[in-house]
Amino acid sequence: MKRERIAEVSRKTAETEISVKINLDGSGKSSVNTGIPFMDHMLTLFARHGFFDLDVSARGDIEVDCHHTLEDLGIVLGDAVSKALGDKAGIRRYGNMILPMDETLVLVALDLSGRPGLYYDVTPVSELVAGFDARLFHEFFQALCSRCGMNLHIRQLASGENHHLFEAAFKGLAKALDIAVSYDPRISGPLSTKGKFD
């Protein structure tokens, strides 16, 4: 019998106050309130398409700009995924997805190796998406990788409008992560010839 992979993490700074609860073996239900409607949409579909149960509450200084909130959301979500995974024994470790969203096509590939790295080849057609700077998604993914110990490649294969581009990226991340955290009965301990991750 596998243990429950549920974690809850909170973080409070002078700029943000964020809490995240995730169940890696959920059904895709979510409750998300970040103060940034488009990010709510992205995290809701991340939960749905990854079959993660996800609760997110965030308050940040978005009257200044969305940078602190996006970055700290990545930090807290990364910490929660890492905590829920524990020693990662028995998981597939790798996941990938090439995901179409109408005219847009995005490749996402990841390795839960413990060695963080973001390799991000995404060029929005305009700086803004739903009223905020689309370039800030890089900060979210960078923080997520750093705190989760994830090696993550996101590559735009076919361009399109910004909403479709980032929806494809978040759905692709969800599907790839769902594969990577899933158990394989053939795997005993960590899937590494070193006997550990990192």
Describe the structure.
This protein has a single domain (6-181), classed as Ribosomal Protein S5, domain 2. Helix content is 33%, strand content 30%. The chain is built from four helices and ten strands. The strands form three sheets. A four-stranded mixed sheet has the order 1-2-4-3, covered by helices on one side. Strands 5-6-10-7 form a four-stranded mixed sheet, covered by helices on one side. A two-stranded antiparallel sheet has the order 8-9. β8 and β9 form a beta hairpin. α1 (37-50) runs parallel beside α4 and α2 packs parallel to α3 (137-148). It is globular and about 45 Å long. The protein starts with 5 loop residues before the first strand and ends in a 17-residue tail after the last helix.
- Overall morphology: globular
Structural category is alpha+beta
- The name of the CATH topology is Ribosomal Protein S5, domain 2
Strand content: 25-35%
H/E element sequence? EEEHEHEEEEEHEH
